[in-house]
Amino acid sequence: MTSLLANPSNELDIRGLGKRYASTQASGGELQVLEGIDLHIPAGRFVSIVGTSGCGKSTLLRLILGLDAQYEGRILLDGEPISGPGRERGIVFQDHRLFPWLTVEQNIAVGLRNAPFSAKEKRDLVAEHVALVGLEGFEKSWPHQISGGMAQRVAIARGLVNRPRVLLLDEPFGALDALTRSRLQNELQRIWQKERITMLLVTHDVEEAVFLGDRVVVMQPSPGRIRRTVEVDLPHPRNRSDPAFIALRDDVLSDFLDADTDRTPAAAPPPETVGTGLPQRLQLAW
Fold it and tell me: Residue 239 needs a FRET pair 20 to 30 A away by CA distance; which of 83, 123, 187, 281 works?
């Protein structure tokens, strides 16, 4: 089946985006969650957004997905404003959210519920995406019979099966152990190289952001805004032990260490170490 994913219409453009909520404080007022977000994502590119908790990463994805229409600025796909949820935007969450009463292939097929395909086309698409995520032989398995990593592969297949123009990834590997996480990062990189879909990943993991992204957008909180953008000009597949990769990772990581330094009084004692002997603030950024 011909892929739609390299179509230049998959370009995403965010201009002057802001989002505020009513404050929960007794004094009332509003809480500014996002402010002045300008982000251009060319078709077929993989962009990572990295930031600490509370910087508005997931809120940004909700707005792009169309789950909240109350915001300032514009979100455009192929030059057209986004209005509500749509088939052209898929999403993968941190929690795989599989239906326990459906098999692997049935869970993937959920992504095609409202798609204008024939029954045979839907079967073919499900089979194609089972193979894409390497789950041949597990089509009839129930969610409780497969591992967490395999369940997340099902979620990725479900997000892609509808042939979306943009795939949003909201910390998709955050609940997995380190080894499974690393393997699935490699798998997602392989899938992106094959399909060339426009992908937008939000994560708090700096290494993951650099490993997967063509570009890393660093966000800072209160309110959430873009601190800077880093181009990742490294070939695929990427090597985590490559000195160029390590240098880029440490460059991005320095943004979070600088932010911590800015908030730390001059007379403060050295940060405590946890487990590995690394400074606690360094571990939190990972």
Answer: 281
